[in-house]
Model the fold of this input.
Amino acid sequence: MTIRGEAYIAGAYEHPTRHAPDKTAAQLHAEVALGALADAGLARADVDGYFCAGDAPGPGPASMAEYLNLKLRHVDSTELGGASYVALAGHAAQAIALGKCDVALITLAGRPRSEGVATGTTPRVRDPNQPEAAWEVPYGLTTANGYAMCAMRHMHQYGTTSEQLAWIKVAASHHAQHNPHAMLPEVVTVADVVNSPMIADPLHRLDCCVISDGGGALIVVRPEIAKSLNRPPVKIIGAGETVKHLAGGTFDLTTSGAARSGPAAFAEAGVAPADIKYVSIYDSFTITALLQIEDLGFCAKGAGGKFVADGNLISGTGKLPFNTDGGGLCNNHPANRGGMTKVIEAVRQLRGEAHPAVQVKNCDLALAQGTGMQLGTRHCSATLILERK
Amino acid sequence: MTRNIPAPAATVETQKFWDAARGGRFLLPVCTACGKVHWYPRAICPFCDSGKIEWRDASGKGTIYTFSVMRRAKEPYAIAYVTLAEGPTMMTNIVDCDFDALRIGDKVAVVFEDSANGPPVPMFKPV
Done:
């Protein structure tokens, strides 16, 4: 049993807003849903499966299903943090393969910027029933210093430098200059990154992603429906997901869940890292992208610093063009969750609809990789491999 | 230490740990079935599934596995993972130290720091 070739991404839409104080989260979800349907050439009445995660207002899928007035025969609100939408595309393919739905809608939206959330630098509110809460809350764990501890250990273990990490931001900025919606469209240099204020050693301000409002949506359909539509077909050929955690106090912070979700997706797709023409890699911080690039097998473990340096991630010049929309580091990070925009830019690349300045030539195979929650403690990881048919 | 340390919430699984902490004792959960020490403490061994967990006094010694000084905070503080002499690696803070002199691999020893309206929490200082 496999999902390879059982479903296609027929619609993809990224909300152009980066600051939406005049809209509700539900409204943004609805706008991206309608945008993705229009992109596919389908109507709301065609949707019979709805997929969402923790950013959807209310518990589970019920509130948004009602707001959109959907008539559904399949729902899935698996919460994997920022990785959710990468995983949900695979879940939609599973549901379609089993005949549970024909047209799956996946939405993401949120307004952390309008709500003034200090996403990275203040501790997140915890459910006291989380069994680890008492062992982390007293120590001032934030998003930034959790990821910073991964970076510090990677530097110690493998000799990775701040300058090498900075190249990830530099590459993203080279792409963002062509994106009219990007929050940070200015090209930056390695010196700009390492001279920006230190947030949590060794991560500087420019090692961190933006905080933005916005959202995105995907439409996943049966192959027969995809072929009836007037859009370049993007086939789902492999998916993997996992949770990586502290394992009772026996862990390696230099490895992400991509080390498990990646090989699972490659095995299902029947392709290897060397076959991939374009990658979307979740980049909440520069170190986030570095760990996943290694764990997906694009270079040896520990060699990521050398691999990403000198523009190797820049489309047109580097060997592994990544995040050609500018990614979370420069473009947007809607609802503090980067997975959705990763899939959307991979779809654009496969359709040949990325900005001409960053479009990868003959892009027939792409990978979208997401992680969710906290690489410094426990996180979810999802990998999706897509093919231009 | 000037940072306000949020109080840990004790549960029926961990009450003994926090009671001991109030007396300055650092306990570790040891599985009497497989002999392993795990972290964070829980009633069921994550390695062998046994429920035979005993609290034993720790040596209080460890080494810094990784750390990060939160420069962006009003009062910078050092979050860290320390690998305990007994085996597991735990999240903590490094205190009573020169932040700029901290290095991975440094030897540290446990100290208890008061939390706001809660039990003292285990932190570490260089030795």
Helices of chain B lie at 15-22. Chain B is about 5% helix and 35% strand. The beta strands of chain B are 27-31, 53-57, 61-69, 78-84, 89-94, 107-113, 121-126.
